[in-house]
């Protein structure tokens, strides 16, 4: 399957998706680690994609999302941001609200 | 002052006319990690610009990435961004 179709399929299949380096249990990058920690801290049930094991997604997601770096957090198919934005949202309490809304929808 | 920091400063200055601009090269703090093997650097920028008025964080970060253009592929591995409008301090 075309990589863009695969990305769309992943986003359609899960309300919250984190494209990251490594896994939430074994993150391979500090930024990915902090983003996954913030999601866990608000009790988010999220799907993660390890881009280090999927070079095609790693190469093509930045163009699809218009965002050059990883991690990338999506809620309902929409890019929320990378590490800095996710942590800002976490600190303001907004991340918890987004995660709760994603669960209801 | 490294050439990379100079390039970043120039791009951001031209694109965003910042009132305040601070760039830190944090590459040394990541020297051992897997992502640093390609030789690109880790940087942190703080940009205060009127261009950010009325923009959400996502749009501000995209504006910073757009200003840096191909440096994101050639020179920058990771970038921490603090983007604020002037009244946000």
Question: Which descriptors apply to this entry?
Answer:
heterodimer; A: 105 residues; alpha+beta; globular; B: 89 residues; 3 helices; elongated; BolA (chain B); BolA-like_sf (chain B); BolA protein (chain B); Glutaredoxin (chain A)
Detailed description of the structure:
The complex is a heterodimer of chains A (105) and B (89). The model of chain A has no long low-confidence stretch (mean pLDDT 95). Chain A is α+β, with helices and mostly antiparallel strands. In chain A, 52% of the residues lie in helices and 16% in strands. Chain A has one domain (3-103): Glutaredoxin, CATH 3.40.30.10. Chain A contains 5 helices and 4 strands. By secondary structure, chain B is α+β, with helices and mostly antiparallel strands. Chain B has one domain (3-88): BolA-like (GMP Synthetase, Chain A, domain 3), CATH 3.30.300.90. Helix content of chain B is 34%, strand content 26%. Chain B is built from 3 helices and 3 strands; from the N terminus they run H-E-E-H-H-E. Chain B has helices at residues 3-16, 57-68, 71-74, and strands at residues 20-25, 41-48, 76-84. Chain B has a 3-stranded mixed β-sheet with strand order 1-2-3. In chain B, helix 1 packs across helix 2 (57-68). The two termini of chain B are 26 Å apart. Chain B: Pfam families: BolA (PF01722). Chain B: Belongs to the BolA/IbaG family. Chain B: It comes from Dokdonella fugitiva.
What's the layout of helices and strands?
The complex is a heterodimer of chains A (105) and B (89).
Chain A: H1 3-13, E1 16-20, H2 30-41, E2 47-50, H3 55-65, E3 72-75, E4 78-81, H4 83-92, H5 94-104
Parallel strand pairs in A: 1-2
Antiparallel strand pairs in A: 1-3, 3-4
Helix pairs in contact in A: 1-3, 2-4
Chain B: H1 3-16, E1 20-25, E2 41-48, H2 57-68, H3 71-74, E3 76-84
Parallel strand pairs in B: 2-3
Antiparallel strand pairs in B: 1-2
């Amino acid at each position: 399957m075309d990589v863009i179709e695969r990305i769309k399929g992943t986003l359609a299949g899960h309300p919250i998706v984190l494209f990251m380096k490594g896994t939430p249990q074994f993150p391979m990058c500090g930024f990915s680690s902090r983003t996954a920690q913030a999601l866990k801290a608000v009790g988010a049930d999220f799907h993660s994609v390890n881009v280090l094991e999927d070079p095609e997604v790693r190469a093509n997601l930045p163009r699809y999302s218009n965002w050059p770096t990883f991690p990338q957090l999506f809620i309902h198919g929409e890019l929320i941001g990378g590490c800095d934005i996710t942590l800002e949202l976490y600190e303001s309490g907004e991340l918890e609200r987004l995660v709760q809304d994603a669960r209801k929808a | 002052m490294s050439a990379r920091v100079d390039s970043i400063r120039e791009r951001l200055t031209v694109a965003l006319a910042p009132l305040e601009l601070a760039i830190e090269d944090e590459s040394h703090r990541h020297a051992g990690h897997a992502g640093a093997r390609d030789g690109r650097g880790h940087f942190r920028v703080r940009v205060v610009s009127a261009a950010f008025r009325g923009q959400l964080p996502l749009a501000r970060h995209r504006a910073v990435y757009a200003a840096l253009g191909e440096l994101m592929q050639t020179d920058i591995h990771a970038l921490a961004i603090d983007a604020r409008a002037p009244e946000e301090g």
